[in-house]
């Protein structure tokens, strides 16, 4: 077998190891949290901020490593991607079935499961960028995903998923986890024994997708330095924290401050589009057909929302 065929497996294993190692270390540190200090204390809230930023930054680093080191091999040999996707999905399904059957809440189990979700998000998010042909198409995609996410939250499946998850966590995680719980990226939190949800895997699929699109169209979406396309040219990876992830983190913090669920993708889309329109003149070249598509989709979403509200009232 060609040596190059082994490289994707090695890098994917490294992605698992990086996330799990960080989770184990932080969880071990947080177990030292003094019992006399309430979990809702200002100290816990303040400490949660760098924890979120740490794991978001780690996720971005994993994305960048995947796009620069693994994705080229996946494009050359699509069968490797298919095999990896099949293996990741099969592993995730088996873990989810086991967790529901035995009502597993062990933090270590969900560290591995979350790492599996992140790998899946990278495999899928970088793949679905393939149909894009123009920079301006990113504006259409962002508008569509933002409206679809809003619809799903207001009257669609996400609304029911969120309700079941909230009920599960507020009841002390008693009984088998709801199906929606297996779609969440979880991280250690100060003073808590179990991992806590941070955002959904669909959010990270979009982060991976937008990062892959930025690399493909040579757009610098990095808030702290050069874009991925320059890192690829130089062969040196630097700090990478993209616009899309900044939007996701902003949505997470807003949800924490307001103590309510906030759809992340509209915030992600708004920040990404604003940055890309400034940094990439080609993205501003929307055609009349593009505007008609956006108007048609927006009208369709509005009609669907009104119909759903009428039927479900």
Radius of gyration: 20 Å
SSE ordering: HHHHHHHEEHHHHH
What is the rounded distance between the termini?
60 Å
Tally of DSSP helical segments: 12
Summarize the entry for a quick read.
The chain is an all-alpha fold and 313 residues long.
Structure commentary:
- The protein is an all-alpha fold and 313 residues long.
- It has 12 helices and 2 strands, in the order H-H-H-H-H-H-H-E-E-H-H-H-H-H.
- Strands 1-2 form a two-stranded antiparallel ribbon.
- The longest helix has 28 residues, at 42-69.
- Mean pLDDT is 90; it is low at 1-6.
Labels describing this entry:
mainly alpha; two-stranded antiparallel ribbon; 313 residues; single chain; 68% helix; disordered N terminus; 12 helices
Secondary-structure map:
Layout (H helix, E strand, L loop, with lengths): L6 H24 L11 H28 L1 H6 L1 H25 L4 H19 L11 H18 L2 H14 L13 E4 L8 E5 H16 L11 H7 L8 H16 L5 H16 L8 H25 L1
Antiparallel strand pairs: 1-2
Helix pairs in contact: 1-2, 1-5, 2-8, 4-5, 5-8, 6-7, 6-11, 6-12, 8-11, 10-11
